[in-house]
Amino acid sequence: MSKRVLIADDQAEVREWVADVLRDLGRSAVETSRADEVLPLVEEMGEALSMVLLDLDFGQDQVGGMEALKRLRAAGHQLPVVILTGKGSVRAAVDALKAGATDFLEKDAHVEDTLAAALSRMDQYAKVVKENQRLRAELRGVKEIVGESEPMRQVLAQIERLGPVPRPVLVLGERGTGKELVARALHDNSPRASGPFVPVNCAAIAEGLLECELFGQEENAFDGAPFKEGRFDRADGGTLFLDEIGNMGTEFQQKILRAIEYKSFERVQGTETIHVDVRIIAATNSDLQEAIREGAFRADLYDRLAFDTVRIPPLRERGQDMAPLARHFAQRFHEEVAGLPLLEFTEGALAAMRAAPWPGNVRELKNFVERLATRVTDARIEASDVAAFLQPVGVARSHGGDPGVGSFADRVAAFERSLVERALEASEGNRRQAAEALDLSYDQLRRLIAKYEVEAG
Predict the structure, then answer these.
(1) pTM, entire model
(2) pLDDT by residue (tens digit) across 264-278?
């Protein structure tokens, strides 16, 4: 366990006093008087630091401790951050806890005892974080799947359970929910992880060419056609991911069923039976049960593919994941494109984003965040920014006016009204549930209902 602690406080006497206490407790101190140096120091020192002691007030015209904390968390650093606070700023420390601080302690005569207790808690915290990282590393292939909500926890649990099982899996989800990410995670968490992962988008290939694409073709199968190896060949020893399986015609479904059942096939215009060891993972955004009833999908193929199913929830069912997803995409785009700001989403902005329907789900959210980063002048994203940038691309519609026209104030008002109406609809008129969904107090929601004369049921 590292013994070094970063003290960030603009008062030299406080830093010296706390550093002396730390030395008495067997720790060494690294000091800075500026909050904007916290992130660079943490990134420079890495695992040499065990904790940050962070003041909140660094004086007028200076970056504050709350901003430094948010930058740390936005950059993905989970280092324990303990807020140093005067007696008059305990409320601010509590707000910092909500923003990701781990603990806080008051600057008083008992600081040695409280700091000793905090260090003990942080040591235990670090052990827990390290153990969680170890456990997560054991579940390979999920680093790109961002989510803390209960529905996504269930998906990750299914990946862990089904990954090692050598049977087909059917992944169900609306467009843009991340079906290929789940398929890759199933592959990476299986004994086949060192083998190939071969994706095929069945909807993007004309049915007349799909047989050649999957099974390959012999030379001169058509006039002048070269020999072509199929995707089943290339996936030998690994996983074949059949995306949008519902787009296959019923005649070709019979050939796929046989290839899955017997792990063998013949190339187009070939006579030799090719044997392969391939695990099939299929995905669709179609209702296959309805397709079976309509005769558009074979029930026996469905039974073979659906040894087990993984349903990925749409973004509207993952409100808890909006913040980590938005910050994840903002961080990735910031790293990818030099000079673009690292977006910071206020609670109001996140509430507005949670209330939008997102028919394109996580993929649409990613595109939205990237558009924001290229167009805004202020990296701090407010609810009004969400209203202004969501509406032109048709993500959300207002019941009370068109937010795409009129003055800026009119568009924001129309969007606010739309958020209130949708939250009330979703909660079937339950104002407390609607307020909670929008991250508002009951009184705040009541005032908005009165302001916009919303029928609340």
Answers:
(1) 0.58
(2) 998 888 888 999 999
